[in-house]
Specification:
The chain is built from three helices and ten strands, in the order H-E-H-E-E-E-E-E-E-E-E-E-H. It is α+β, with helices and mostly antiparallel strands.
């Protein structure tokens, strides 16, 4: 009988350890969930994904370096199944570091339905994204175009004066994705059929 009691006590100790380990794992997972957003921000900064958002006060306080020029090229594409035309008004601009520029992009909905689009930016070379600062961009929000509608979408940016001298050309690429709610597209299609 004494062996049975000792066995139960040993089992209880093992169960308590297991519960403590499981509770610790839950706490770690919960903490990791909260840490994902800052970790993703760090990852994007290191890899140069999506550039950076800078407030207007930072943009206005930047001095212009007129001793050099950086070329910013623009490329656009639409994801498969996205019935829009999407292109920049100009293929490139030459800008002095610190100088604010405005560039327009034309988007046209070629479909018979209202479509919501989301532009995703990418900067190359990757390290250059640390120096390309978008103060206003159509990519910050989803764009909704009615059937047959065209719109000019603006980008306001500047290249930081801290950009290394060996980076003379940057490419800002946008890919436009269809993010329309499938239920609303069906509703539009049903209304068109009536």
């Amino acid at each position: 009988m004494s062996d049975n009691v000792e066995g139960n006590q040993a089992l209880n100790i093992k169960n308590k350890r297991l519960v403590a380990k499981l509770f610790g794992a839950i706490v770690l997972m919960f903490g990791f969930g909260f840490a994902l957003v800052p970790l993703y921000d760090v990852f994007c900064e290191i890899t140069g994904i999506n550039g950076r958002l800078v407030n207007n006060n930072q943009a206005q306080s930047t001095l212009v370096d007129k001793s050099r020029t950086v070329r910013l090229q623009f490329t656009t594409s639409v994801a498969p199944g996205m019935p829009w035309q999407f292109k920049p008004h100009v293929n490139y601009v030459d800008v002095h570091p610190g100088e604010s520029k405005v560039v327009k992009f034309l988007a046209s909905n070629q479909s018979d339905a209202n479509i919501t689009g989301q532009a995703i930016p990418s900067v190359s070379p990757g390290v250059a994204s640390l120096y390309l600062n978008k103060t206003e961009c159509f990519c910050f929000q989803q764009q909704i175009l009615k059937s047959g509608e065209s719109v000019d979408m603006g980008l306001v940016f500047f290249v930081s004066t801290e950009i290394p001298a060996d980076i003379k050309t940057l490419t800002l690429s946008y890919t436009l994705f269809n993010v329309t709610d499938p239920d609303s597209v069906q509703a539009v299609d049903l209304q068109a059929a009536l």
